[in-house]
Amino acid sequence: MSAAITARCDSDLGDLDGVARYHLLRAASERFQREPAALSESQLREALGRARKSLEIESLVLASPEAHQVLIRSRQLEGAVAALRARYPDSDAFLKDLGRNGLDLETLGLALRRELTFDAVMQRVAAQQVQVDDIDLRLYYELHRGRLTSPERRTARHILITLNDDFEENRRDPVLARMEALRERLGDRPAVVARHFPDLARQHSECPTALEGGRLGAVRRGQLYPELDALLFRLGEGLVGGPVESELGVHLLWCERIHPERVLPFAKVRDSIRQVLTERRRRDCQKAWLAALRQTASLTPSTHP
Question: In the prediction, which pLDDT does 298 show?
Fold first, then answer.
């Protein structure tokens, strides 16, 4: 970090040097996964802006009547410090890192106490939310049915023969010939495929799934190797595709059954909807409370870099 940037950074910290530096360190770590000293000038400006905003909000909350009702116990603070200390191999490394970022144990303790108080106040405010009732849940479900779906799945089986030039029968050309012969034997009639595919998998497949007739189970898009995935989701129900090659070897693939995308029943998604709406109302409650604080508080504007 250049001397000019460092000086500018210092001028932004004001009277709360240690607390402000903690906010800057946290902003740099969360946004860039780096310490402030390792940031470019533009990154530092962004981190400073984030730190200044978070410090302003924190100070606003800590000046509220609600904050005066919060008591942070020593063991809570000790636990917060210990959680940070656990990220380092030893105490010396921990203290050295604090010093490099303009902090010591005293200022860290002050910053963490403020942070714990802030979190406690915001949790209390969020608890004042209007409860979600069954009408809310049902209305959300009806308005978002198109997104509350179970994706298409396909039940599949396969026959795998590996490729290995050390063995004549496992070289590419012989393997492809064997697979083509099996493919011809199965044909295109779903009833015939259903009768013979599991037995052929047990006899010829080199995959452990051979013990279950080549069963891969019900899969969604993206769960298989790309070559198999593309083939499976092109096949009609009951049909066999291949030979197709993946990094495992050469496959024949049977689309045993298609499970179309479907809207999930209300009972299945009720709890997850309640969670979404509850969290949304908690955030709305916190935002409204902060807006009210801003209207009534007399704040001295921060100096922008």
Answer: 58
Measured from the Cβ of residue 100, the count of other Cβ atoms closer than 10 Å reads 12
Burial class (CB in 10 A: 0-12, 13-18, 19+), 211: exposed
CATH 3.10.50.40 fits 153-259, yes or no: yes
Alpha-carbon distance of 241 to 224, in angstroms, equals 15
Residue range 228-265, pLDDT digits in tens? 999 999 999 999 999 999 999 999 999 999 999 999 99
Average pLDDT, the chain: 91
pTM > 0.70: yes or no: no
Tokens coding 112: 């963490």
3-state helix, strand, coil in the chain (%, to 5): 60, 10, 25
Q: What is the dihedral of CA 297, 112, 72, 85, to 10 degrees?
A: 170
For every residue of 97-111, DSSP letters joined together read HHHHTT--HHHHHHH
How far is the C-alpha of 278 from the C-alpha of 194, rounded, in Å?
48
Cα–Cα distance, 120 to 66 (Å, whole number): 10
Q: Where are the CATH 3.10.50.40 domain residues in the chain?
A: 153-259
The pLDDT tens digits of the residues spanning 114-164 come to 999 999 999 999 998 888 999 999 999 999 998 999 999 999 999 999 999
Whether the Cβ atoms of residue 148 and residue 154 lie closer than 8 Å to each other: no
Determine the length of the chain.
305
Instruction: Please tell me whether the peptide bond between 151 and the residue prior to it is cis, using omega within 30 degrees of 0.
Output: no
> Are 281 and 132 in contact, with CB atoms under 8 Å apart?
yes
Would you state the structure tokens that stand for residue 17, as one six-digit string? Answer: 């040097």
Please report, as a single letter, which amino acid is at residue 242: G
Alpha-carbon distance values, 294 to 12, 20, 54, 56, 301 (Å): 21, 20, 14, 11, 12
Residues 278-296: pLDDT tens digits? 999 999 999 999 999 998 8
Which residues are bridge partners to 157 per DSSP?
215, 254
